[in-house]
């Protein structure tokens, strides 16, 4: 019996990931005439930058100033997402989860200030009973720590919750502790080799939340 839902944030609720890719791509093209391959960037999606920045350092060598690249990309990213709204179906899913009396948690590899500030801007923060971020755990995705903490907060077992994710790192984290997972990829993550998920949707508009939960409660 499903009693709670756990949502990722970046790329799932707000498509910050596509904006980050285009921001870094533009900066690297402008400064170094370097074409950032999507398949390299996407390895860090849903997790942290431990793979991404060493990759850039390897490709660009001593000419690369990571802090400067981060600063310029962040400025562009702010422009790109300034008027972005939540992805299709997100508001409906959150509203339906609350109406159904389900526990609702966020589990994100981003920090608390990032997640909460964007949720406030989108007028979505009030839907969440708990917000679990990288500030609260030792390891981010693909480790399962964020989901374990979310389950602890919701006072649920793995089989009593469902995770909504857009990234492979998120799916791996959920699979490690056997939480049923619905994949809703964005343009950056759409080509990732997702396997062994419960459902995969192009958008949350494809299937009502009640129908998703019913498919698990059978």
Main sheet record: 6 strands, parallel
Number of strand segments: 6
- Decide which structural class fits the backbone: alpha/beta
Strand arrangement, major sheet: 3-2-1-4-5-6
Give, in order, the helices and strands: EHHHHHEHEHEHEEH
CATH topology call of the largest domain:
Rossmann fold
Spatial gap, N to C terminus: 9 Å
Task: Output the keywords.
alpha/beta, 9 helices, 43% helix, Rossmann fold, 218 residues
Layout of strands and helices, then pairs:
Blueprint (H helix, E strand, L loop, with lengths): L3 E4 L8 H17 L5 H4 L10 H9 L5 H16 L8 H10 L3 E5 L4 H10 L8 E3 L12 H10 L6 E5 L2 H9 L4 E3 L15 E2 L8 H9 L1
Parallel strand pairs: 1-2, 1-4, 2-3, 4-5, 5-6
Descriptive report:
With 218 residues, this protein is α/β, with parallel strands linked by helices. Helix 1 (16-32) crosses helix 4. 41% of the residues are buried. Helix 8 links the parallel strand 4 and strand 5 (181-183). It has helices spanning 16-32, 38-41, 52-60, 66-81, 90-99, 112-121, 145-154, 168-176, 209-217; strands at residues 4-7, 103-107, 130-132, 161-165, 181-183, 199-200. The protein folds into two domains: 4-15 and 85-217, HAD superfamily/HAD-like (Rossmann fold, 3-Layer(aba) Sandwich); 16-81. The N and C termini lie close together (9 Å). It has a six-stranded parallel beta sheet with strand order 3-2-1-4-5-6, with helices on both faces. The chain is built from nine helices and six strands; from the N terminus they run E-H-H-H-H-H-E-H-E-H-E-H-E-E-H.
């Amino acid at each position: 019996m499903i009693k709670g839902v756990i949502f990722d944030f970046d790329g799932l609720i707000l498509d910050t990931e596509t904006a980050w890719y285009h921001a870094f791509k533009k900066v690297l093209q402008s400064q170094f005439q370097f074409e950032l391959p999507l398949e390299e960037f996407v390895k860090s999606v849903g997790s942290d930058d431990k793979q991404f920045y060493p990759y850039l350092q390897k490709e660009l060598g001593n000419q690369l100033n990571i802090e400067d690249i981060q600063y310029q990309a962040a400025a562009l990213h702010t422009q790109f997402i300034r008027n972005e709204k939540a992805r299709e179906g997100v508001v409906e899913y959150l509203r339906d989860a609350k109406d159904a009396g389900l526990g609702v948690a966020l589990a994100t590899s981003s920090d608390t200030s990032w997640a909460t500030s964007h949720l406030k801007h989108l007028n979505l923060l009030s839907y969440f009973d708990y917000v679990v971020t990288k500030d609260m755990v030792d390891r981010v995705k693909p480790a399962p720590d964020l989901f374990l903490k979310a389950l602890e907060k919701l006072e649920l077992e793995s089989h009593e919750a469902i995770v909504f994710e857009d990234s492979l790192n998120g799916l791996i984290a959920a699979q490690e502790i056997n939480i049923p997972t619905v994949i809703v990829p964005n343009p950056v993550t759409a080509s990732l080799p997702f396997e062994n998920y419960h459902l995969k949707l192009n958008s949350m508009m494809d299937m009502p939340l009640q129908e998703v939960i019913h498919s698990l409660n059978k």
